[in-house]
Design a protein that fits this description.
The mean pLDDT is 88. The protein has helices spanning 58-65, 120-128, and strands at 6-7, 14-15, 21-23, 26-28, 49-51, 54-56, 82-85, 88-91, 110-113, 116-119. The chain has 135 residues and is α+β, with helices and mostly antiparallel strands. Its main location: nucleus.
Length: 135
């Protein structure tokens, strides 16, 4: 019985191994499936991620493409509590006035000026001080 050999998406060599990996519609030698950033082997991982034909481990995918806090620039995980303002996302603790540092509460009025969060008092102070940009 003749079997058709598949080519590995990474090295291009035929796959004659008994076991191979199928990821993103492509076939891989087990030892060739590696994260494109850290080069860690992915053959024993439960999952991997593909974006623009590049394969990533979970950690590097999150670092590269995951949501990041608009204040501290650290990653936001699915279990984090967040605040949203327009298209910006903040950790709950990071949603604070850029002027005084006070954390803002749910329902409290605030303003965004040049993607900076201001409490109502500091927004009014800025506007009365002659700043022309406002939200």
């Amino acid at each position: 019985m003749q079997t058709e050999l598949r080519s590995c998406a990474a090295c291009g060599e035929p796959i004659s191994d008994r076991f191979f990996l199928e990821v993103g519609g492509c076939s891989w030698h087990a030892h060739c499936l590696r994260c494109c950033m850290c080069m860690c082997p992915l053959d024993r991982q439960q999952s991997c991620y593909i974006r623009e034909r590049q394969v990533y481990c979970k950690a590097d995918y999150s670092k590269s493409f995951g949501a990041k806090c608009s204040k501290c620039c650290r990653g936001i995980s699915a279990s984090d509590w967040v605040r949203r303002a327009r298209d910006l996302v903040f950790h709950l603790a990071c949603f604070a006035c850029d002027q005084c540092g006070r954390q803002l509460s749910t329902g409290e009025q605030f303003a965004l000026m040049d993607d900076r969060v201001l409490c109502k008092a500091h927004y009014l102070e800025t506007v009365e001080g002659g700043t022309t940009s406002s939200d």
